[in-house]
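ok trying this again, last paste got cut off
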Amino acid sequence: MLTVEEINQLIEKIDQSSIDEFMYEEKGAKIKLKKNNGVVSTSTALQSNIQNTPQPVMESVPKQSAEKEETATQQETETKANYDYEIVSPMVGTFYSSSSPDQPVFVHVGDQVNEDSVVCIVEAMKLFNEIEADVKGTITEILAENGELVEYGQPLFRIKKA
């Protein structure tokens, strides 16, 4: 097992690197280190950039288009209100909703999850990384398809916190 000094060195190295999550297991002992990236602050920064971007003005909008836009805006608002946490991919890889093709999926929409509930697997370089919910709540949306390539930071699930 690692000594406290070695663990502290690991923390410093991971803090200085681009790695967001690290897990080490030896003889039944596990160490899991995660950076606190704060999904909320990232999305807030994106929203401020979007608000500062000039939007084109359309002077003549047909009535049907305006109604469709209003309906789409209402649906987006309802969707946004339906969750308050996103589980994002910690790496580039392949998204799997179950541990193997013959096994049931980890979670469905409407399922209750805890902080340590495994919600999916992301395979990167032949390593299968279990992704945990990190919050207690209800799955409101599954945003990735089984076998789909996912990017770093891509939202995979939306959760309504309990």
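PB: full thing came through this time. The CA atoms of residues 94 and 149 lie 4 Å apart.
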